[in-house]
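Sharing a chain and its predicted structure for anyone who wants a worked example. Both blocks are below, sequence first, tokens second.
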Amino acid sequence: MFDLAIIGGGPAGYVAAERAGAKGLSVVLFEKRELGGVCLNEGCIPTKTLLYSAKVYNYAMHGESYGVKAENVSYDYKKIVDRKNKVVKKLVGGIGAQMKANKVQVVKGEAVIESRGSEGITIACGGEKYVAVNLLICTGSEAFVPPIPGLKEAGDVVVTNREILALTEQPKELVVIGGGVIGMEFAAFFNTLGTKVTVVEMLPKILGPLDDDISAMLQKIYAKRGIEFNLRCKVTAIEGNTVVYEDAEGKTCRVSGDKILVSVGRRGNTAGIGLENIGVEVNRGIKVDNMLRTNVPNVYAAGDCVAGYPMLAHTASREGEIVVNNLCGGHDIMRCDAVPSIVYTNPEVAGVGLTEREAKEKGIDYKCVTLPMAYAGRFVAENEGGEGICKVLTGARHGEIIGVHMLGNPSSEMLYGCCMAIESEMTIDGLKEIIFPHPTVSEIIKETVFAIH
């Protein structure tokens, strides 16, 4: 009998297992593939490893701007991929070591929930049965592949994030269906290495939920670098290696590529794990409350398989922590006012809190100031000719920070402070009193705040 059984070893599952084990709970963790889930094996870490190699290559190509000359700069695609695999393997091993250190029993295999009774919750895996007092479901998500005519017939020309990461040869031409975060990160990576990239997006902008001004700026930057953007376009068919779509005027257009990346969103994994055996309610994901409780007592869910919360690795980890904190006698709830979003293009995009569009839709009276990143001396020193902005939104009445959105390197590393400001309901007067280290790019946040009147 275990105190907690966890199905799924991704960011929600392994973090919950580590925290629970550290608190003295007996834990069994089921994972059918590799520890780390999609994020570590097929998403966050491998893509960022590839993108960093592309960034290093880009720096080498443009070193003369910094007084550093490198001739005959080249790259080895296979070595880039090999390094990605090495990084993933190292981190997967690290998670395994953490599980062992916290006495978590890891079972590799496909787990199925069988029943729930007075003796506990029974899970079957690999011909064995396991019983636990509590169950946490963290089965993650899969790339959503829409029923586009001709897609299945196209075979391995069509790829999702999983298959494109496994490529051993760089495509000369790549068509990306979907201009969201995943689509744009792969578009940026292959564009930097010289692949001809075309993005086909149904919405009028890339990176739909992100700040409109920043989205437009990033699109302009990558359009100058050669990415072709076809917005307001609906894909109607795939013919071999050709994507057929209708543009905003209803005209039928075609674009071909060695590979076609389908990146139009993700769908939670809720089928085939036995939810129906214990009556867990599902509606476009497992339904949970703000403590991650399902409708069934002692059964929780976290991560991409739940409905209503952002499908992000850091959101999943926090959800896993909330479950464990409450199991151990605390009172913890999921709050989404300060969930950060990052796009690891070059330059990076980082945002937290409300965008201007969201504030207007909610009828919130706000103030907004936008400054160029060049107001920070460190940014000018390290980004020759680089473009970037920082936008800060505050409540008009009380001056509380309600949104911060940035374009520029290294905005991903600065954003946590903005998350803390929003989470703690800090005002602009309070933020003005914070001492920022000089010279750092983070000073742009303080500069922007001082520009708000």
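Comments welcome. The chain has a mean pLDDT of 95.
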